[in-house]
Design brief:
The chain has 415 residues and is α/β, with parallel strands linked by helices. It has eleven helices and 26 strands. It starts with a strand and ends in a 6-residue tail after the last helix.
């Protein structure tokens, strides 16, 4: 056990895994490999503050001194070409090799490619890395007509940011509502109304059939309705694909990502997977999921470190997410796919409300718009297993807190 742990991927999950290994008392070698030359950085600001401020710099996850102080070998600008679970060695594209005792795959995901006639052309961009954000920021300073393909969180965050900067922004979404896979219809409608009021044009139930170019640069998109929309920049945000190819080529089981058990081990026991790339049976829903969030990546990372250091914990974190779209802070807790009843608390007209999702009597999720107290209380309630009744929800934050406190006092003391 002298080759230590190699972490492949230097995003939020990879960096947290390195930190957590040291926090858990792991004394072996820790190597963190990232395919970008940048010091690991926060990704959420890329779709907001970074692209609107020409002087903005990356917000690093940890200072460079952290890696030195923790004896973490940082290999940046390196890509892993192959992984040998039996020989316990990985090869780098640069020609080198690294031996390991354990591997944590924190390989993340990549933007889905647009399968449409006319591409690719200059000016067609996606956002996943700081290089992408720099390209969007630079081009946005030169053009006025921008089309964003995809009405998910990233696309809408960018749309709100660029529209506020004076650009003419059109969002083209194939579904009948925005954020259709993520939030309740009342939240979708609210987001759509506020974006439209801010100047963003929304085309729902619409797809792009063709892209037109001029001298190799995108100039317009042709929609399924036959409309030609000028576009000097086309941002594609139609979802992501898990980076599971490295694992699959090594004979590790994959299915919508790298399959892991409740302790994040893959089918090769000395190799773990975390974050966007990991697919697993979720403790809360009993369904197979692959979650794309900073929270999921960092909580996975902490558990992976505990698994490697000999603990028997299983994954039991309550999932939560957030998104800043214009003047709307969306915060979500839980997984609402099995919701059969919703209760709205607050007033959408005030741009402050929450939607409580139930499956039968069980609270399974809360979506909040500019109601952070509901979100934070919701995380505590769901973590404890408490489901408030309708009257408590309708009574507002004070009634919810009182109901939760009363419930806690009635729980049996731990043995």
């Amino acid at each position: 056990m002298n080759n230590g742990v190699v972490i492949i991927g230097a995003g939020h999950g990879g960096v947290q895994a390195a930190a957590s290994l040291r926090e858990e008392g792991y004394e072996g070698r820790v190597t963190l490999i990232g395919d970008e030359a940048e010091l690991p950085y926060h990704k959420p600001p890329l779709s907001k503050s970074f692209i609107k401020d020409s002087g903005a710099k990356p917000q690093i996850l940890r200072a460079e001194a952290f890696y030195a102080a923790g004896s973490i070998d940082l290999l940046l600008g390196e890509t892993v070409e192959s992984l040998d679970p039996v020989g316990k060695q990985l090869k780098l594209v640069s020609g080198g090799s690294v031996s390991f005792d354990k591997v944590i795959l924190a390989t993340g995901s990549r933007p889905r490619v647009l399968p449409v006639e006319g591409g690719p052309l200059a000016g067609m961009l996606s956002l996943r890395s700081i290089a992408d954000a720099r390209a969007i920021r630079a081009l946005a300073g030169e053009v006025e007509d921008i089309v964003i393909l995809g009405g998910g969180f990233i696309g809408l965050e960018i749309a709100a940011t660029l529209s506020a900067g004076g650009r003419r922004v059109t969002v083209v979404e194939a579904q009948q509502r925005l954020l259709a896979r993520a939030v309740a219809p009342v939240v979708s409608a609210h987001v759509a109304a506020r974006l439209a009021a801010s100047g963003v044009r929304l085309l729902l139930n619409t797809v792009v059939n063709r892209i037109e170019g001029d001298d190799g640069h995108v100039s317009a998109v042709i929609t399924s309705a036959g409309e030609r929309i000028p576009a000097k920049m086309l941002i594609v945000g139609i979802g992501v694909v898990p980076n599971a190819e490295l694992a699959a080529a090594a004979g590790i089981q994959t299915a919508n990502g790298v399959r892991v058990d409740a302790q994040l081990r893959t089918s090769a026991p000395d190799i773990l997977a975390i974050g966007d790339a990991a697919s697993y049976r979720h403790w809360f829903t009993g369904a197979d999921v692959r979650l794309e969030s900073v929270q999921n990546a960092t909580d996975h990372a902490r558990l992976a470190a505990r698994t490697i250091t000999g603990h028997a914990d299983t994954y039991s974190a309550v999932p939560w997410f957030w998104s800043d779209i214009g003047d709307m802070k969306l915060q979500m807790v839980g997984l609402t796919g099995g919701s059969d009843r919703q209760i709205v608390a607050g007033e959408p007209a005030d741009n402050r409300f929450s939607v409580f999702h139930y499956s039968g009597p069980r609270l399974i999720g809360i979506e909040s718009v500019n109601r952070p107290a509901d979100h934070m209380l919701g995380r505590k309630m769901m973590g404890a297993g408490f489901s408030p009744d309708t009257q408590s929800v309708a009574g507002g934050s004070d009634a919810l807190k009182a109901a939760f406190t009363d419930w806690q006092t009635r729980q049996p003391a731990p043995v």
